[in-house]
Target: Isocitrate lyase/phosphoenolpyruvate mutase family protein
Amino acid sequence: MTHPTATLRDRALAFRALHVPGRPLVLPNAWDLASARLVEEAGAAAVATTSAGLAWALGAADGDGVDRERALRAVAEIAGAVDVPVTADIESGYADDPAGVGDTVRAVVAAGAVGVNIEDALHGAAEGPLRPVTEQAERIAAAREAADAAGVPLFVNARVDTFLRGAGGVDRTLERAAAYRAAGADGIFVPGAVDPGTVGELAAGVDGPLNVMVGPGAPPVADLAALGVARVSAGSGIAQAAHALVRRAARELLGTGTYGTLVGGLDYAELNTLLGGAR
Model:
């Protein structure tokens, strides 16, 4: 499916405008066409992919376990299935070096997405849990350059995994955030930080929109909004809950031979109508 640059530019600008501190963009992350349409139907202003959910759906592990081509084919399918802007979680960029990250971003734009998340975590590396900040800044700069060259103001959301990986607190997070913003990132994503005091410090210290990840035990969206958060996402949480339902239903059917887990399922005709037609 082709995506005219003018259309993508408009979508990208609309997506950027949704990042307002105190009135956050709320993203229930999707991982395939069906979940994306359900998220859109629920009223989401945009659709964000979860790299973990997407990888699992493709039979791979999260953490650079899926290759660029397969991941972006799924992103293209999602972007072509909804009418709202789509932002893609591209893990660490599906590439070993900055030039490769640039190639990935060009492919993201070609797939029809208008935003990316790029993480600074290292998976399976002996040198530490996080990529060196200067190296990560180069990767973000390559992403920015590739998007700008394509004529699309892609929203680059730089993920700082200090809290998620136990690799630092507020000060180290803000240092990384400043370096990534200087390299061309538009927003900063700090998963693992949900304590109100910490979130408030981050919102005040980050020069740009702050994204936090929520799940059970996290403050409600309204409380995060009051702290100055500009974007709230569910990460892999919805995918995890969906897969948990599959396991419970399967175990019940194979164990007791009953069907209580299936109570409350979506109506067949409703799903068939929502998912059966092309956009």
User: Anything to note?
Assistant: The radius of gyration is 19 Å.
